[in-house]
Amino acid sequence: MTIHVSPEACPALVLNADFRPLSYYPLSLWSWQDAIKAVCLDRVNIVSHYDTVIHSPSFEMRLPSVVSLRDYIKPARHPAFTRFNVFLRDRFQCQYCGSTHDLTFDHVIPRSKGGLTTWENVVAACAPCNLRKANRLPKEIKMFPHQTPYAPTVHDLHNNGRAFPPNHLHQSWLDYLYWDIELEP
Where are the domains of the chain? Predict the structure, then answer.
């Protein structure tokens, strides 16, 4: 699963005041228009620029490629329990067969048997596995999730998000991202 980033659109990487990205997946990016607006409202510091320049009759400015917030935004302590975050925790893979297509989610202990809709009972599952398991217990059908479902931390989700970098990473962003990139000697 890849987030499409158009390099021609000159998006700005948005860092918190501690110079860490606000999020890794999706990567915290603003359009160049939003970045310029934040600069003009004095909400961000420009860390790096593109070579592209914008003009108005009385104003000229190089587009920012990396900005940092002036005020620190405290990250959430516990991630929201959402379908997207379940998929991200499970790395966008069916927890029964490993497929990355046609994902939905499955209650390991079916709701009809008292299972709750919680981090500890919901996993990503492809539609065929979900239909095959139906409302049966894992031991009844011999279908067990590859990983025991758990409530992830924000750090867990950030780490998993790093496995899905956008299709384009501007050179000026690399010092602030921790993907597996080859380092220069």
Answer: 8-71, 83-140
What CA–CA distance (Å, rounded) separates 53 from 37?
15
Taken in order 95, 24, 31, 34, the sign of the CA dihedral is: positive
DSSP 154: H
113-to-52, 76, 109 alpha-carbon distances in Å: 60, 33, 7
Query: In what side-by-side order are the strands of the sheet with 12-15?
Result: 29-30, 12-15, 59-69, 44-56
Class of domain 83-140: mainly alpha
Tokens of 180: 């597996």
- pLDDT reading at 132 higher than 60: yes
In angstroms, the CA 125 to CA 176 distance is 33
User: How confident is the model over 165-177, as pLDDT tens digits?
Assistant: 777 778 888 888 7
- Give 30's DSSP letter: E
Contact 64, 35 (CB under 8 A): yes
Global pTM reads 0.73
Q: Tell me how far apart the alpha carbons of residues 167 and 105 are, in angstroms, rounded to a whole number.
A: 26
